């Protein structure tokens, strides 16, 4: 059997997973790819670091040039993450006509267009990035291949396992956000610096890639509306439950009249919706196509082996198509932020939890402000206590524009410094 | 833009859907496939039949030779269904180096090996069949491409929309099987002769294809254990609910020590399992891979547009790879029924509902028979009535072999002709 030599850039969590799968499933991978796939070199930063996997030390190098200049290496598998030096390595590898497999969401979101352009210029090189979105779930292939007959109207995903784990723990165990985050760190679901996950950046990169594929429109990742989960409290989750909702961090992309509405934010969704039952560190993506209708993909969105599964799937796909013309290198357009709908014009129902002085006329004052901003109230709960003279009021609104809510909040908080909107959560009925 | 001419065999439900999608989404299909795809001819049996779609009558032919001998037609899209003449048309088209797209599950299950062999012999022809399993859900591509790095251990599916619709209606509206079937016929979810659906044949064909792909082992479809849903009563569904289960028609494929366990039968599954919440005519498939873990695909398993979506996806895929070497033609082995595990040796928990004479010693007699067959009882409900001297007893067993249950039933029904097992349903805890 012919050998196919590949190099791994990075031997962290995902790198170790890829190496394990290639070793453990060597036989079936040979049968399915038609090649004996050999990891010929592995780039690491520190040769002496302890690894999760036993690797022959002769494969390890700290010098990228060793890989770049090895003409026998056909595929470079980039698992370093981040923008640089990953991008530099990929562009140089393409110049040498090496195929690319990457799991790098940040890079594909920020520089995918540039990378595809280079690949097209070189010709006859494949660039695969299934693992960059939702780990082991084959969503990129699904959109790029099976769904190409559809006008895709909407994509909604739970794309970040860390935040979904935290929200699930808060929901099922009644934990506070801080306690659930601590638990997620202890279990390895959250990183030491969890900012990228809990503030929604990770989900934004993934959504940016998905919308580029679904709608053939690309926008800059930092133009996407983003709100993390740090303000979600135990009491929001309990109130959501009372109203028949669960709180999830959703990544939403919609197209209407050529305008894109893209956002990542926590949302209340009906408890009986399939996405509401995606728990723990699982991911799911729901796509609505004009022909296929609603389609959902569900699975593990992170972890060494699930993400490794997607990477190895890509390696095998490149192997099977080694001498074939690449057929999906033109899918990311240049960034075109003009097509982004102003998020202030987006419409949803809203949940507002506020804490106010429990004095005569307060409710009248608030409801007048709602009226002034043309916001119509659907439900209202007031739960006072007799001790501190303050009371929690929860409003659920009818459909209204984001900018009306913002204008209401501004006016409301100007009334007195004792009035505070504790939290605002969008309600997505997903119908 | 270069034209790519295709022919449709059949203009029924799916054929009309395919034609509609190709027409409505012409622009995006051109962009994605790189070709102007033109339906050049359509084979029908009856030229005068009323259609769901407006088609230029000059395209219509009743003579397959018109298509076969048109060298400009590159892709033949078979949407007739059934074994013959579909197989004959496909083999002849392959001889003429035409690519094949088919939605024919029966044919792929029964003759897939033969068709692939012919394609391999001819060389440079693609055979695509995404629409043959689970309509618009891209499950075949998922297994064939993204999951190739995995040893797949298990595939469990709700593969038949008709039966799932019937069971959902019985569950949510408390309908009898007969009433729900009638309703399904009225709404177009069930055919005039519903045998293939309600007796599980349709699900067997689909499962046969899935297991061939998941495990690289092919068995004859008529060797697969099959049980339909006709014996499921309202009272079984209510009792299942009491125990925390829903009843679904499951298609199950597992591999253990090189032996395949494949079956289609109704099963009780825990209400909080993702498959339990697949309602109406939706389909879902859950796959367990050694690397990827649990993965679920969910969507519409039938209908003109969802199935058409998969067919058009295949047409575009062939277009994009027109001059590429086909890379997945060797996946169906010859039938090898030796690897099938005897279904009598399969193990499950069981639900048994029986109707017996309410006389002293009856329960003792039954429980002794259980003991004799080494079946251990998990739960028991007896609900007598005082009028007819008979009583319903429901047993839930611990894990036991199918053949022990069969031996119990035989002995039990031999006791007296007044003793009858009304229904037996396997319980799958899916852990």
UniProtKB/TrEMBL annotation, chains A, B:
Ordered alphabetically, the record's keywords are: Amino-acid biosynthesis, Metal-binding, Methionine biosynthesis, NAD, NADP, Oxidoreductase, Sodium, Threonine biosynthesis
Q: Which domain of life is it from?
A: Bacteria
EC no. given is 1.1.1.3
List, for all copies, the residue spans of the domain called ACT: 351-426
* Amino acids binding NADPH: 105
Q: Which InterPro entries match?
A: ACT-like_dom_sf, ACT_dom, Asp/hSer_DH_NAD-bd, HDH, HDH_cat, HDH_CS, NAD(P)-bd_dom_sf
Asked if the Swiss-Prot or TrEMBL record annotates the protein with the keyword Transmembrane, the reply is no
Q: Which cofactor does it need?
A: a metal cation
Active site: residue positions: 206 (proton donor)
State one Pfam family annotation. ACT
Residues annotated as binding L-homoserine? 191
State a single Gene Ontology molecular function. Answer: metal ion binding
Pathway of action: Amino-acid biosynthesis; L-threonine biosynthesis; L-threonine from L-aspartate: step 3/5; Amino-acid biosynthesis; L-methionine biosynthesis via de novo pathway; L-homoserine from L-aspartate: step 3/3
Catalytic activity, reaction form = L-homoserine + NADP(+) = L-aspartate 4-semialdehyde + NADPH + H(+)
- SUPFAM superfamilies in UniProt: ACT-like (SSF55021), Glyceraldehyde-3-phosphate dehydrogenase-like, C-terminal domain (SSF55347), NAD(P)-binding Rossmann-fold domains (SSF51735)
Broad EC category: oxidoreductase
One GO biological process term: threonine biosynthetic process
Q: Which residues bind NADP(+)?
A: 9-16
Xref: PANTHER family? HOMOSERINE DEHYDROGENASE (PTHR43331)
Family label:
Belongs to the homoserine dehydrogenase family.
What is the name listed in the Swiss-Prot or TrEMBL entry for this protein? Homoserine dehydrogenase
Say which species the protein is native to.
Inconstantimicrobium porci
């Amino acid at each position: 059997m012919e050998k196919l030599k590949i190099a791994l850039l990075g031997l962290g969590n995902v790198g170790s997973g890829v190496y394990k799968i290639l070793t453990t499933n060597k036989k079936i991978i040979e049968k399915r790819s038609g090649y004996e796939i050999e990891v010929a070199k592995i780039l690491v930063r520190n040769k002496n670091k302890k690894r999760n996997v036993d690797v022959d030390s002769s494969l390890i190098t700290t010098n990228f040039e060793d890989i770049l200049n090895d003409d026998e290496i056909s595929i470079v598998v980039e698992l370093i993450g981040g923008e640089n030096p990953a991008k530099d390595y990929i562009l140089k590898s393409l110049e040498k006509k090496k195929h690319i497999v990457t799991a790098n969401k940040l890079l594909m979101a920020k520089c995918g267009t540039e990378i595809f352009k280079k690949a097209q210029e070189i010709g006859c090189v494949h660039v695969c990035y299934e693992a960059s979105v939702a780990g082991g779930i084959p969503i990129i292939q699904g959109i790029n291949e099976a769904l190409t007959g559809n006008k895709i109207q909407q994509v909604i995903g739970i794309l970040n396992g860390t935040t979904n784990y935290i929200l699930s723990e808060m929901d099922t165990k009644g934990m506070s956000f801080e306690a659930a985050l601590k638990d997620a760190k202890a279990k390895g679901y959250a990183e030491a610096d969890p900012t990228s996950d809990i503030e929604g950046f990770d989900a934004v990169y993934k959504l940016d890639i998905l919308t580029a594929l679904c709608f053939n429109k690309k926008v800059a990742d930092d133009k996407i509306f983003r709100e993390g989960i740090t303000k979600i409290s135990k009491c929001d989750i309990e109130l959501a439950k009372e109203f028949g909702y669960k709180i999830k961090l959703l990544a939403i992309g919609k197209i209407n009249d050529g305008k894109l509405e893209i956002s990542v934010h926590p949302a209340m969704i009906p408890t009986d919706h399939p996405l509401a039952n995606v728990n723990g560190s699982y991911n799911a993506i729901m796509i609505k196509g004009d022909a296929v209708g609603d389609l959902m993909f569900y699975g593990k969105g992170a972890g060494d082996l699930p993400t490794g599964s997607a990477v190895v799937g890509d390696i095998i796909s490149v192997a099977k198509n080694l001498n074939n013309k690449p057929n999906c290198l033109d899918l990311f357009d240049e960034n075109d932020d003009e097509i982004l709908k102003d998020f202030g014009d987006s419409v949803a129902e809203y949940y507002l939890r506020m804490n106010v002085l429990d004095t005569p006329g307060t409710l009248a004052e608030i409801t007048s402000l709602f009226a002034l901003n043309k916001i119509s109230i659907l439900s209202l709960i007031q739960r006072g206590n007799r001790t501190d003279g303050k009371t929690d009021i929860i409003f659920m609104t009818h459909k209204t524009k984001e900018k009306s809510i913002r204008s209401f909040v501004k006016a409301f908080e100007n009334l007195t410094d004792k009035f505070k909107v504790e939290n605002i959560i969008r309600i997505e009925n997903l119908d």
